[in-house]
Structures are given as C-alpha cells and as structure tokens.
Design a protein that fits this description.
Oligomer: single chain
Strand order of the largest sheet: 5-6-7-2-13-12
Helix content: 25-40%
Number of strands: 15
Strand content: 15-25%
Number of helices: 13
C-alpha cells in the first residue's frame, strides 16, 4: 500500500500520540555503530536524498481535524528541509561508547516537534577505534519495530557498493497543498463512514459463512475475555513502576546469537524464551538488591507481537498486538525458570490474546479521538505490566552504508508513564544486542540490570554445557536436565545469589509444571490458574 497524502492514522498509531506526555516520549530508534572513517556530511545527505522517495511518509507531517472529526492525518510538509532532520556532531576525546550513549540519552530525552515529520538522524563522528555512529529517532506513530527493519532498505545495502535506486521520472518532489479545515472535516467524516461500511460488509459476509463466523466470533470473545481478565489481575508493585521524569539512561549489551541457540537447543524452547528467561533472572537480582522479597513474585512483561501479514510487509504504521507474558522472578534455578517461561509462552501462543487485541483495535477505529485517547492510556496502565520487553529479529548478514559496514545495532525503546525500564533486543549478523532504556532518576543502577543479564546468560550456558558434557560421558540420558551450579536438588534449599535465606528456587506450593500468575500488590503469592496462564 502506497504512503499517500491525507492518509489517516490507524487507531494504534493514534494511540501512541495520545499516550505521549512531557515525561513519556513515544519515539523509538537505535544506536548504530559503523566501521570508519565516516562519510562526509554532504555525501550522507545526498545518500538519504536519493532514496527518500522510497518512504514518502518521511516527508509528511501530522494535521489534526478540528472538533476532533476523526484521527490525525499525514500530509506533505511544504517546508520539509532534510538538513533539519539530519544532524551532524562529533564526540570529544577519547570518543568512548559511554560518551556516545550519553549523547543518545540527551537526544532521546527531547520530544520530536509535531509540526514537522516525526524523525531525526544524527551522524556522530570520532568514535574510538576508527568508527562512527548513527543515532536514529522516529516517533512510534510512524513505524513499528518490524516495519522499521524493512525501512532499513532505504539507507542500507547488502554489499559495500551502494545499489542503484530507480528514481521517479519528472521534476523534483513537490509537496501537495495542505488541506483546509473543511477538507479535514470531510475527510474525517468519510473515514468514519468508510469504517461503518466495512463493518456492514463484514456483517453480510459473516451471514454467508455461518460456520467460519461462529468460530471467529468465539475466538474473538475468548480473546477479549483474556484481556479483560488480565486487567482485573494487576501486575505487582515494583521499583520499576514509579513516576518518571523526562531524562534517560541507557545501557547496551553485546552477545552472540549462537549462545542463545546453544541454550535453547539444550533445554528446548525458542531464542525468545531464552531472552525472557535471562531478563527475568536479571530482574530477580535487581529486586533482591533493592530489598524486594521475590518469593511468589511474578512480574508481567508486555511483549509486542507483530500481526503484520505477508502482504503488509514494507508498509508503515503499526500492526501490533500486545501479549502479557510472565517473568517468574521467584525461581532461582535458571533451568527451571526457562522451563516455566517456555510453558507460559507456549500457552500464550495458543491463547486468543492477539485476536482479542485485534478486535479491540478494530473497535478503536470507530472511536472518537477522546475515547481513543482514554483507551490508549488504559492499554499502557501500570496495572497491566511491569516492563516492556521486545525482541526484533534483524538480518543475519552484514549491511553497509556508503561502503561502511554496520558493526553493532542497539535498539532504543520508550518509557510509558510510571514505567522506568524498557528492554529492547535485536539480532543482527550473528549477534544479539540489548538496549536498556531507563529513567534517569528512578534507575541510576540500570548497569546492574545489564550485569544481571550477562550473569543470567552465563548461568544458562554453564548448565547447557554441563548437560552436553554429561551426555557425552553417558551420565545423562534422554535429555534429562543437569542441576546448574549454585542450585540444590535436595529438599533443603540453599540460599542463592546473595546468600539471603528468605528465598527459594521454586515455592513449595508451586512446582516447575505450574504457572504462577501476577501476584497481588506487596509481592503476595500468585494464584494458580491454568486458564489464566495464557494471559501472563
């Protein structure tokens, strides 16, 4: 689908605008590190200018109909200036990665100007090791993570030599006139009527296919029910869920993709299961260091899932459903924690949460902006989740910009109100890189969480290699798990990670085969409910 002048935002895209506040900025991006030397700024601008026609939305801004006659629309920006959106700077000596992340934090602490196209790119020179960086910043209303990978085709090439790009024939790009208030109002009414006609068409189609309609309706009801159930069972209070300010901290981590695959091959599950397990392990350490008891405590992670179909690849705009997955921080044994995460994620995949989210998104398409704004704030309520964890698969081959190879890519998320941490993960060319965005005041110890992720992965790798070694020695058969270092298989549990005697690997009333749902406030024991596990 082409990105047209006067396109209306989807309900999901508009919700990101409604959620934005002075302290909660809804832009996302990345820190990209390249081999040097950097290109000249003029060459870099020409490179973008020569491919900008492939993403017309990047030359469009938002307009809002008066009297809230429908959601905002994208229109060509008559004053579009590429020099405004592409910034050029350099790090002072020594040009460390710490200095680069500090710069990125300052950039991400400032809101984008809604009177202009909602993106910026910074070319950063003098990064130590003969490297340079790009810092990208794009409003979430413009692009989601999966589509963002598709947009990399605008700047990136699969080979060192830049590929030839076809250009439209005719004169240079000319913006179309901005619509007047009457046209904006008419467009809003037209969109509402169109949505109503589509609803009526679906109704007629449903009447001609009763069996399919009944099945889909049942799935939709179950999905909405699961979302409502999650809303009635709030996430626990934690130091992650406090008022935030506008300023940010950032921690970045590099790992090998093969290490995550080694763990999942040893114990089953997926790479994403391993990612969630190491995040849970790191948050367990963090909470215990903050003096929070973790017995029976299960956090909720909001895990965005793309519902973009194959024929929608390459389109801008968000096609996302949010799944609420449990993070069992009450489990000290890393292998047992992975087993619980795998079980719960398998349950989520079988659940109807994504269908329910699509149904609600469809209803929001008919909602006036004021109602949509309230609904979107509810979707990001602290009651529903403790932290956002998103894992985006990237290309497993080297990419280049003007002949310079991309070495590392660290994704940067956003912080909703009362959420002090966002964990973003992206795989690229055999690596898995983490980007931890944190509130400056609420999480001065975000580096401790990063260190906890390292230690949690090391624990799983140690257990996986011990299992493989034992299997090679004939000590373990049929894939039986080996108890990792620091765990005790006896009935008397020993203190773990910190030596505190008040926590156990798994609570006595909850075995590895049982799922614990979100605890009551204050860290009370969660209730067991097989149906509820699909909610996380």
């Amino acid at each position: 689908m082409a990105q047209e002048h006067l396109d209306r935002l989807t309900a999901t895209d508009a919700s990101f605008l409604a959620q934005e506040g002075d302290n909660s900025h809804m832009h996302v991006g990345a820190i990209l590190i390249f081999e040097g030397p950097p290109p000249a700024i003029g060459d870099f601008l020409d490179h973008i200018r020569g491919r900008l026609h492939l993403v017309p939305r990047y030359r469009q801004k938002l307009v809002v109909p008066r009297a809230e006659m429908g959601r905002p629309l994208w229109v060509d920006d008559p004053s579009f200036n590429l020099d405004y959106h592409v910034r050029h700077t350099a790090l002072p000596a020594p040009g460390s990665e710490e200095q680069l992340t500090r710069l990125a934090c300052r950039i991400f602490s400032q809101q984008l100007d809604r009177s202009k196209p909602l993106w910026e790119t910074w070319l950063v020179e003098r990064l130590e090791g003969t490297r340079f960086a790009l810092i990208s910043k794009t409003h979430h209303a413009l692009v989601d993570g999966v589509a963002g990978v598709d947009l990399a085709t605008v700047l990136f090439d699969a080979e060192r030599a830049p590929r030839a790009v076809d250009h439209p024939t005719g004169a240079e790009w000319q913006p179309r006139p901005e619509p007047g208030s009457a046209l904006l109002a008419a467009t809003g009414v037209k969109a509402v009527v169109k949505a109503g006609v589509e609803l009526a068409t679906r109704t007629v189609t449903a009447a001609t296919r009763p069996e399919t309609t009944v099945r889909r309706a049942q799935e939709a009801v179950e999905g909405v029910g699961e979302i409502v159930w999650a809303a009635l069972n709030p996430a626990p209070d934690t130091p992650l869920n406090v008022p935030i300010g506008p300023h940010r901290r950032f921690a970045q981590l590099r790992f090998r993709l093969e290490d995550f695959k080694e763990v999942k091959n040893a114990f089953g599950g997926t790479v994403n299961d391993v990612v969630l397990t190491v995040v849970a392990g790191a948050l367990r350490r963090f909470l215990r260091a903050r003096g929070v008891r973790t017995e029976g405590l299960e956090l909720r992670a909001l895990v965005p899932v793309s519902i973009r179909s194959e024929d929608q690849q390459g389109q801008l705009g968000n096609r996302l459903a949010a799944m609420r997955a449990p993070l069992p921080v009450y489990v000290g044994d890393p292998v047992a924690r992975l087993a619980l995460v795998k079980e719960s994620m398998d349950g989520l995949k079988e659940s109807k949460q994504a269908i329910g989210a699509e149904v609600l998104a469809g209803v929001n398409n008919l909602a006036p902006p004021t109602i949509l704004a309230q609904a979107s704030r509810l979707n990001f309520s602290t009651r529903l989740f403790n932290v956002i964890v998103t894992n985006v698969p990237g290309p497993q081959m080297p990419l280049y910009v003007l002949g310079r190879e991309l070495l590392d890519l660290f994704p940067v998320g956003f912080l909703p109100e009362n959420h002090a941490l966002f964990v973003a993960i992206m795989s690229y060319n055999g690596k898995v890189n983490f980007g931890l965005l944190a509130d400056y005041d609420a999480l001065p110890d975000v580096e401790d969480i990063a260190q906890g992720i390292r230690e949690s992965l090391d624990e799983l790798l140690t257990a996986a290699r011990r299992k493989a070694s034992a299997a090679d020695s004939g000590l373990v058969g049929n894939g039986a798990p080996v108890v990792p270092t620091g765990a005790d298989s006896s009935s008397e549990r020993q203190p773990d990670d910190g030596g505190e005697p008040d926590d156990r690997d798994v609570d006595q009333d909850e075995g590895p085969g049982d799922l614990m749902l979100a605890g009551e406030k204050g860290g009370q024991h969660a209730e067991r409910d097989r149906k509820g596990r699909a909610d996380g």
